[in-house]
Design brief:
The complex is a heterodimer of chains A (376) and B (528). With 376 residues, chain A is of the alpha+beta class. Chain A has helices at 21-27, 79-94, 110-121, 134-141, 177-185, 220-224, 287-291, 318-336, 351-365; strands spanning 5-8, 11-14, 51-54, 61-62, 73-75, 165-167, 191-196, 199-204, 230-232, 244-250, 259-265, 268-274, 306-309, 312-315, 341-345, 370-372. Bound molecules: iron/sulfur cluster (3 copies).
Chain lengths: 376, 528
Amino acid sequence: MSDKKMMVNGREIPFAAGETILEAASRYDISIPTLCHLKGTTPHGKCKICVVEIEGERELKTACNTPCNANMVIKTESIKVVADRKKTLEDLIASGNHNCAASSAGNSNWTVFQMAVQQYDKTDDLCPVWGDCKLQDLLYHYQVTQKKPSDRKQPFQKEIVNPLIIRDFSRCILCGRCVSACNEVQVNRAINFGEQDGREKIVTKNNTSLADSDCVFCGECIQACPVGALVEKKAAYQWRPWEVRKIRTTCPYCGVGCQQLLHVKGEKIVKVTGVENGKPNEGRLCVKGRFGYDFIYSDERLKTPLIRENDHFREASWDEALDLVVKRFKQIIASDGPDALAGVSCARSISEDSYQMQKLFRAVFKTNNIDHCART
Amino acid sequence: MTNSFGEFSRAKMFFVIGSNMTEAHPVAATFLKNAVLKGAKLIVVDPRAHRLVDYADLHVPIRVGSDIAFLNGLMNVLIKENLYDRKFVEFNTEEFNSLKQKVSEYPPERAADIAGITPQLIVDTARLLASVKPVMLCYTLGITEHTCGRNNVVSTANLQMLLGNMGVECGGVNPLRGQNNVQGACDMGALPNVFPGYQAVVDEKARKKFEAFWNVSDLPSQNGLMMPQMMDGLVSGKIKGFYIFGENLASTEPDIHKVEHELSCAEFLVCQDIFLNETTKFAHVVLPAAAWSENDGTFTSSERRVSRVRTASPPPGEAKPNWWIFKEIARRMGQTWSSNSAKEIWNNEISMLAPALAGIKYHRIEGDGLQWPCPTEEHPGTAYLHKEGQFTRGKGAFIPVEWTPPAEVPDEQYPLVLSTGRRLYHYHTRTQTGRCEGLNDLLGEETADISREDATALNILDGEKIKVSSRRGEVMVKARVTPEVPRGLVWMAFHFREANANFLTNAAFDPFTLTAEYKACAVRIEKL
Ligand code: SF4
Ligand code: SF4
Ligand code: SF4
């Protein structure tokens, strides 16, 4: 780090060459709110929430893409800054179907607005991410309520045709985090800023649905979306944040070993997200890791031991089934020796299971005929 | 993997051979693509122009099964043009002369002829490879699933040693492992020749150690059978009792008709699984097991990272954790095992027995896991192996290898090559992903991917049902006509029972590893 320094809120902080104000400040736990900025991607200063006041500058500057300069004197929560952020937030909440508790107060048209939104959503529930929304958090933080009449235009039609992701353009604040996630984080290049009917919109290449685009349903855009414009179809309206426990675990599919957060309501996983800053995936998941969890609740799961009887199975107790296994294995060992037994372990199950199985074969059966499936 | 996923986004060049990373290891591929966006170079060697090729500086479309010829050709150029790392070769390797001699038999013209590419492309690839250091080499099953799989692997190591790309960050030889815990299963000794921690069963000292620890005597001293030998044994009568834990062999093994015959020969077959599947049909007893998020335990990823798995919900009905089932069988046969949870098994047994895991205890892997080798509880884990050119046996030895063709090559009757793999939206035989809402909608049936040229020649339209047959079987399947696939190649997966490519694949095995040649057999396609 260089010895260059600047003042932030009356405190002297050093910074490295090329660092932005946001980066330097966050290292010193000076929090500057952001909406559009996605860590690790190119900042574009679009949402203007991160504005700060720099002494000697007439205009406020966006902290996410303004480089630090020696001797800058910065205020991150001045009256001017706060007023500007409030204005930004007012515009944002008025721009769409933000029917969470934050917008209810003080708006005489609330009922009309709410009815329209409910019709659009086809549910009388509030916004599906109510309680889990960065915009809502900021509205509360800056005590912004919907003062001006909603300039909500007829929203673009909601996309629900694909099986996994709901794209609700009525709640999109055009922050572009999904675009950064798709192009710079996952590098799938499926979506970008575009236009429809002369209005800005996040679009796929020919403004098709995701299913007909280059989208590979990694869901990174959902995880990046700060509002309720992108939600998991399977999870929508199934949960609120205060109802879930978050359990960290490891993806059961490929050998990358992505770290997941299971959002568990009661005894059910309702959604899966990547563990931000966790190794090795740094918050990323693929389609299988993010959406491939509900097989465990399938009705077809095996629930009791089964014993063959002629050409069908009958249910049995553990005692009966295990006694039978032991009896037959013992017979085989007695008549043909332990090497007449062989076993194949599972490359999907936990290591401790494989350890137990090889121990059973070696220490109990006395054979090394133990292998597993993939010899990669 | 000798190196780590964390190094991907900082790497300067990648050499990806036989790996359809964007579909089989999607998140690893994202880090690679990040590096490419920042200017890293990418060479993709693969018969198919799969999605990663969109990001490549160079795509080398070698013929299926010509890897060794191609790699030997590259090394031929590197040596002839003096582009290799002479210092690394001199100080950290041995047997350079035998390598040099062998690859001298593979001038670009000959290698190119075998690989179906131009000699110039081999020269260009070699020069590009030598222009940047280090280069990270990644491979997947496109290297291993051949009758020459072991030799393919050896070749990739030869190349990286020649280039001096071993023992450094952002270099190395990196097999991306297909299954979440195939690394763990190996580490645990679910292999016929080693105890946990790769301690040989033929080594008396190792046996004594395990006998003392497990409090048993007479541990068997001969290597056991590998899976294909077990399957043969079922037919010959050598194997009478067979215990299959969590594998759907009747769909995943090559030549399904043969596999089903083998399974039906088992005198007593136990299947332990979470669903009934094609394999349990042959079982005498089926034991219901707890699944992924119904367990506490660990998985070990491709980068040797031991990470925690945690319980979100209890298993359904009477289903039980697998470790408990094995313990119960042991108890009924007179051995009482004291560990009573995955944590106790790991902390009190595994980490006590496997030296490379000795420093890994559950309390240390609450957050990010640890990468082995991790010999002590103070050790931070190991991100990359062979640091400063230190190989396990001192110097790295070059092992010259000869190219051999696949066991079955096209002929008049079966003029095309079938190669198999995985697709993004499903996992293996779909016992899991097939039961997840939404995934079947994204990919609902198998296709045979064929080239435009072959489609035109047979007047086959995209989406049309065709017949694909080999000497072992036939399937009816939708044709997917795509520029990804070169002429002469048919590409399929095995996610769907109907039109499962393993009705066609050849049960020919690598003589060292007994890995099957899923990547190459001869087929014919017909319009219906
Ligand atoms: S799901 Fe993934 S690929 Fe599809 S738009 Fe979102 S980020 Fe892009
Ligand atoms: S969909 Fe979400 S992330 Fe994308 S621009 Fe709209 S609000 Fe931002
Ligand atoms: S999320 Fe995808 S890439 Fe990551 S471990 Fe799971 S299957 Fe592999």
